[in-house]
Amino acid sequence: MMTTGFISSLNLWNAPRTGLPRLQTELASATKEIGTGRFADIGATLGGGVAGAFGLRGQSAVLASLTQSNTAASLRLQATQGALQEIQSAAEATLNELIALPAEQRGSVATESARGRLAALAGALNTNAGGQFVFGGTNSATPPLTPYEGSPTSAAKTAVDDAFTRFFGFAPGSPASSGITPSEIKGFIDGMLTGRFTEVNWNRTWSAASSRTIDSRISLSETVTTSVSANAEPFRTLGMAYVIASSLGVSGLSQEAQAVATGKVMDLLGQATRSLTTMRADLGRAQSQITEANARMAKQTALLTGQIRDLEIVDPAEAKSRVDAITTQMQMSYGLTAQLRSLSLINFIS
Questions:
Q1: Which of 135, 154, 102 is CA-nearest to residue 213?
Q2: Is position 124 within any domain?
Q3: Based on the structure, what is the number of domains in the chain?
Q4: How far is CA 155 from CA 150, 165, 208, 309, in A?
Q5: Which of 46, 149, 207, 284 has a beta carbon 3.0–4.6 Å from 50's, enabling a disulfide?
Q6: Can you give the residue ranges of the Flagellin C-terminal domain (predicted)?
Q7: 255 lies in which domain range?
Q8: What is the pLDDT of residues 158-215, one digit of tens each?
Q9: Is residue 324 included in any domain, yes or no?
Q10: What is the DSSP-derived secondary structure letter of residue 225?
Q11: How far is the C-alpha of 42 from the C-alpha of 39, rounded, in Å?
């Protein structure tokens, strides 16, 4: 038995158009692959291998993040080294000035130079890099050191003046200072004044810094210290040296008492410069470690990039061929649809 199917112009018009959505999707994917150089749908193309590709990209992202954080750490270390050099140079200059002078002239010269260098110490310890105070430790958002001289009177100066007054019975710079004996000035410096420069009292009256320094992860397996706190011993030693020279009225003491005070200043300056040298060397090692870590991570990143490319790369010639083939198919489909739309029985009825 023979049957006839239903034929309509509408079915003929729609037949070439039914595959167009698929062709348009394939064209978009192929075009994207030409532009990016990788598969448009990694999951569909690699199947179970997509986990490996994502894992490689995750490792690469971690290395990129570490490299970026190392840039910030390097900036902080560079600024810290610059400030430390400034601080050490000032301390060495003060020490050399005093050594070069006769003992009887040291008191007046120390007073003149120490006041400015005490202010410079505060300025250097308040160094800011990238919006962070590099000597603030983990409290890097706040200026670490309050200037000693200023208005209103700083807590540090108040503490020193109060200690002097309680010990001697008169304020620093008083005419009565000429009667202070060498043993008395030594007792004050080694006792009450030294107590004002312990870490606890320094943090209470001088510094807003945290004693906890910043440790940075510089590679997948390395962590180094990348900051210095303004509470560190060399800065407290320098602060004490400059305070003795500038704030105790040394020039008004007897020659014997002056010799004791300036001798202590030179001793403290020598201690501080040696400690600063060690501190700068430690930071220099951290800078070298960061440089080496960055070099290793650059090699690791290049290796991961190659592995990712091997998994995801698209042959541009093959993708271009697909684009051309799909475009040709779509043009044929459009042309056929136009021809079918022009078919009409009216054209054949005479």
A1: 135
A2: yes
A3: 1
A4: 10, 15, 12, 62
A5: 46
A6: 266-349
A7: 55-304
A8: 999 999 999 999 999 899 999 999 999 999 999 999 999 999 999 999 999 999 999 9
A9: no
A10: E
A11: 5
